Amino acid sequence: MNMPKKIEKKAKPAGDKKATPRPVRPGSPQVRSAGAPATAGTAGHLVNITETAFRDAHQSLIATRMRTEDMVPMIWKMDQAGYWSFEMWGGATFDTMLRYLDENPWDRIRIFRKYTQKTKLQMLLRGQNLVGYKHYADDILERFINKAAELGIDVFRVFDALNDIRNMAKAITVAKQAGATVQGAISYTLSPVHSIDGFVKFAKDLKDLGCDIITIKDMAGLISPSATWELVSQLKAEVGLPVCLHSHCTTGIAPTSYIKAAEAGVDILDCAISPFGSGTSQPPTEAIVEMLEGAGFKLNVNKSLFLDIAEYFQDVKDNAYSHLITPVAERVDVKALVYQVPGGMLTNLVSQLEKQNALDKFDDVLKEIPVVRKDLGYVPLVTPTSQIVGTQATVNILSGERYKIIIQEVKDLCRGLYGRTPAPIDPAVLKKAIGGDTPITDRPADHIAPEWDKAKKEMEGVSDSEEDILTYALYPAVAKQYFDAQKDPLKKKARQDAIKAGTVTPEGHPQRRFVMRVDGEDYEVGVTEIE
Hints:
Layout: E1 48-51, H1 56-62, H2 72-79, E2 85-90, H3 93-99, H4 105-115, E3 120-125, H5 138-151, E4 155-158, H6 169-177, E5 181-187, H7 196-208, E6 213-217, H8 225-238, E7 243-246, H9 254-263, E8 268-271, H10 285-294, H11 306-320, H12 327-330, H13 335-339, H14 343-355, H15 362-375, H16 385-399, H17 408-414, H18 427-434, H19 452-458, H20 466-474, H21 476-487, H22 489-501, E9 510-518, E10 521-528
Parallel strand pairs: 1-2, 1-8, 2-3, 3-4, 4-5, 5-6, 6-7, 7-8
Antiparallel strand pairs: 9-10
C-alpha cells in the first residue's frame, strides 16, 4: 500500500525521560480551579480543547483502525498547538490494536510520552470494565490503572454505561491514588427516567468520590443547545468543578451545543481535527476554535498550526483508510434523534444486515431498539449496553418473535451483573430471561474473585511481563493469538501483510457475533462498540 509522503516526516522526541505520571504538566493549559467557576457568558472565559483524533475520532469513523505509525509524525507539532489534552488511549483501542493492528497497546502510551511535553495524555476508562466488555476483578483493575499511569496517562475519563457509580468508584479511587487527573463522566441520554436534576445529583456524587472534572459524555449527539445551557450552568453553579462536554455530530446539533456550552461556562470541549471530525465523530477543531474566538472566548491553541495538521491527516485518511469510510459514518442522520441510536450502531447495523441480505429489516430493527431499551430499564446506549440492546433488537426481528431467543448478555443484565439499571427491567422480560432467580443488588465486582494469580499462572512460559499478563487477563483468546504471532517471524509477517491488505478488517468491527437460523436461513448478527 502506498503511504502518503507526510507519513515519512521525522517526529521530534520530547527527550528521553522516564515514563512517569505527571498530573500537572508545567506550561500546559490549565482548567479553571474548582473554587472559581466561570460566569456564564463572560467575555474572555478560557475554553480548552481536547483533541480526539488519536482515539474517538478514528474509532467513530474508521472503526479504531489508525495505526500508531500514522500518528507519530504529527504528535510533536500537535504538542505545540496548545491542546489541553490528547485523547489517545482506552475505549476500543486496546482490543483493536491486538486484534487488527498487530500492535502492543502499552507501547502507544510510551511513544506518545516520548513525543509530548506540553499536552496531557488522556484515556477513556469504562469503569470496572476497564477497556473490555465485562467487569474485571479489583486486582486486575488496580494493576491496569497503575500501569497506565506509570507509563504516562495523565487523565482518566471514567464512565459507566448505566451511570451506576458503584461501577466507577474503585477506578476513580485508584486513579487518584496514582496521581492522575480524573474526569468523572455522565453518560448522557434521554428517557422518562433521566433528567437534568438527576445528572447534577450524579455529578455531585462523582465530586464526593474525588473527581477533578465532570464530563458530559453525549455518545449519540442528542444534547440540544438548550439542554446544554441548562446542564452546564447547573453543574457549574451546584457542583463547582470544571466541566467538559463530549459529543458527536451524528445528529448535526453538536457544534451549536458546543457554543452554548461555552456561553454557559464550559471549561473543555472535545474536538477532532477536520479530516476526522463531523459525521459520527466530534465537531471539527478548526471550526469550533474559529467560532469561539470570534465570540470573544479565550483559547490557548495556536490555530496557525491547524492547516498543516489537517493536511497531514487528510493524506493519511485518503491514502491509508479510505476503504474503511462509509457514507453512513460521515453524514448527519436525524434517525438518531428519533431512535436515540448512536451513529456507530447505525453504521454497523447497515453493514450486518447487508451481509445477511436482510437490509429490508433495517427499519424494523431500528424501531425495535428503543423498545428493547425501554424493556431493559432505559439503559444508555454506550459500550457494553449498546451491543446488548442492538443485538437483542436484531434477534427479536430476525426470529419473528420478541424475546423468543434471549442473548446471554441480556440475561446477565437482568441478573444485575452489569449493575443497577436506570429504571426497573420489565417484569415479563425479567421472568422470561432468568425465571425465578433473584438478581443481585450489590456491587457486581464484589462477586468476582481475584483474577491476577490465575492469569499469571496461565501465562507461564509465554511472558512474565506485568503488561502482557494484564493484556491476557483482559482478552485471553486475542492475546494468545497476538503473543503466538510475535514469537514466529513467519506468522507475524503474514499477519502484518494481511492487515496492510485489509483482509482482516471486517466492516463495522463487531465485537459480538451470533449466528441464527430462522426458517432455514442463517443470519450472522454483530454489534460494534460505542465509545
